[in-house]
Amino acid sequence: MDIARQWRLGTVVAMGLTFALSVSLYAQQSPLSTERAVRLKNALQTTKQQVAKLRQKSQQQQLLLTSLAPSAEEEGEAVSSSSDILQRLEEIEARLEEMQESIRDIQGWIEGQNESLMVMANDITELKRFRAGNYVQFQYRDTNEPGGTPDAFALRRFRISQTNVVDPRTSMRLTFDVATGTDTLQAQLRDAQLIYDIEPSDVKVGVQLLLGQQPLPLGYELERSSADREFPERTFANRTMFNGERGRGLYLRYGTSMNSLVHIGVWDALTFNDPEQRGRAPGVASRLAVSAGFRLYSTIYDFGISYFAGKRPAFTAGNQTSPEVDRRFLFVDGSYIGLLVPNLFVRAEAMFGKDRVPSTTANPNRTAKDMTAWHVVLGYNLSSRNQLALRYEQFDADRDSVGNTVYGYGAAYIYYINPGARVTAAYEVFFDPSRTPNRYHVTTLRLQFRM
């Protein structure tokens, strides 16, 4: 009788575990996955086979127990227990059949949804072909800069931006500023950039061709978006020598590793908003320039060196003409996050060049001069929403003469209302020997919303 009890106990335990496993598999599987439904179906089929084996063993054991029972009473007890087990196994088999039928219904539902999912996937793909990236900068500016913008509220930038994906390798980026001009009511094309991945790669080791009107890959500040900078405007040197920050041309960018790239390009000699270019047909006197550079970067540092060389065309205004001159620039830049302490960061850029300072007036004596410029930004993240920044800049437009270097220093506080909105309060002081008064300040309070 001990044998009978042990067998009955083992059978019941196995039966319970088998049934619990089946129910658990059924409850946990999602009807949204064909693969999961197939796995569940296979699991149920295996469970049914195991139950059938248990049933067969139960019948065999019933005969064995009947033959081993020493008395009619024990024989009846053994037959009764075995019959009860067989009845429970039949109930399990019936439930498994119901579950298998439910799985068939689930598979049918999934197959019916596949067509809808394909349509939805195509719709999502079409939506991802267009991405917007607009931002608005509204500010109050107070300054005593000679000839500067009067103290007033103004829309400094109202940038409308979009990126269109033509195919996995081909895209274009278009941006317009619709708050330009003296009255900030005029529209101006900023970027019309065509991008083609000649050798695409998910790990940044590929070859990319970029064409059109686009930021010049010189230093770090010209390429950095106005929506990301700590200070309201770029440095005096970059605003003077590369007005508009964008050139017209093409360049190749090659990722030499996951943390480095090189680039080489051909451009019109002047930026599109250069005073000697503005209002004139592109490619004045068919003068072109070439650029080349190397960049090494990671999540905490970014270092680069870049070079630009060409000719500034002759410029005529009234009855005067400024001569054609060499236009050469070497940029060295770097940034580091976590300097000494995790929340401290630094960005710096140095420029060594030869050119004349662009002007809307002409003079035969406006020849090329050796020039230098550099600036450094030191910032500290007080918290996830509060940031402080300091900047010092210097621009010497003629190294062969003295008393013409422009200095500037300032402080800025940035408060992030949320990731897409921030307030910037900045105070800057400049010393420019060519102006009267030669020392002036600029105070800016700006609110920016960005999508």
Can you characterise this structure?
It is a single chain. The chain is α+β, with helices and mostly antiparallel strands. The protein folds into two domains: 2-125; 129-450, Porin (Beta Barrel), CATH 2.40.160. The chain is 28% helix and 44% strand. A 16-stranded antiparallel barrel has the order 2-3-4-5-6-7-8-9-10-13-14-15-16-17-18-19. Helix 1 (2-28) runs antiparallel to helix 2 (34-68) and helix 2 (34-68) runs antiparallel to helix 3 (72-128).
Short account of what is shown:
This protein is of the alpha+beta class and 451 residues long.
Instruction: Write down how many β-strands occur, each being a DSSP E stretch of 2 or more residues.
Output: 19
The proportion of strand residues reads: 35-45%
Helical element count?
4
- Per CATH, the superfamily of the largest domain is Porin
Overall number of domains:
2
Q: Looking at CATH, which topology of the largest domain would you report? A: Porin
The rounded Rg comes to 38 Å
Cα-to-Cα separation, first versus last residue: 79 Å
Summary keywords:
451 residues; alpha+beta; Porin; 2 domains; 16-stranded antiparallel β-barrel; two-stranded antiparallel ribbon; elongated
Please render the helix and strand layout as text.
Elements: H1 2-28, H2 34-68, H3 72-128, E1 130-132, E2 135-143, E3 152-167, E4 170-180, E5 186-199, E6 207-215, H4 236-241, E7 246-257, E8 260-268, E9 288-297, E10 301-312, E11 315-317, E12 320-322, E13 325-337, E14 344-355, E15 369-381, E16 386-396, E17 405-418, E18 421-431, E19 439-450
Antiparallel strand pairs: 1-3, 2-3, 2-19, 3-4, 4-5, 5-6, 6-7, 7-8, 8-9, 9-10, 10-13, 11-12, 13-14, 14-15, 15-16, 16-17, 17-18, 18-19
